[in-house]
Design goal:
alpha+beta; six-stranded antiparallel β-sheet; four-stranded antiparallel β-sheet; 10 strands; about 20% helix
Amino acid sequence: MTISTPRLDSLTAGGTNEVFDGIRLADGHVLTLNVRPGAEVAEVFLFPGLEAPDTEAWENEDDWEIWLTGGEFGDGSLYGDVPVEAVRALIVEHGGEHENQESPYAPEKPETAETIATRALTERDITVHRDDDAGNTWLVIGHNQTRKGFPRMLAEPYVVLYLYSDADEEEITVDRAPRSGDEWTVLAGDGTGAERELMTRPADQFADCVEAIVAWLAAPQVMPSQTE
């Protein structure tokens, strides 16, 4: 079976306007190339994990150009004067072009704290609800996991989970990815408006927070009506 390379064909026919444009390969690897319209050779940058064949076509590795550009390419390898047919052969070797070529070399956005926490807690059969106020965001877990809908925070025990940072100014959020210096914070509310700190952990120790929430849910909690 002949493997077609429509994106490569398009880029080499029309050129890339003196900038690097990308091609995602079927196995997920990525390369970019800078090529003039109709040219038979191109500058090619191979992203990490994609190795150049040990052939004469790929012998012109251009470390000097990477240095001149201040390392803007990041990790990876830049090759000059690579024959277009050699690029095509490399693409075919990796299964052809990926069916999704939209922003092929844009970095994937890191998962937000909400996504990370919701997935981890859902895997433990724990229902999570998002809440927000005045620009702050957090997650709420009611002690009564059989109740449908948002926890009644002034009528039953609950826990609140969020990332906390005071690097620039105080921030309480689940809307972005965890960063170095952040702390996961778990607060336990008793259903009367009072809250206490259950746990804080560095950004890379979220698993401890999950276990603390699981243990809190398993422990009997005093309902506000029982204290009256």
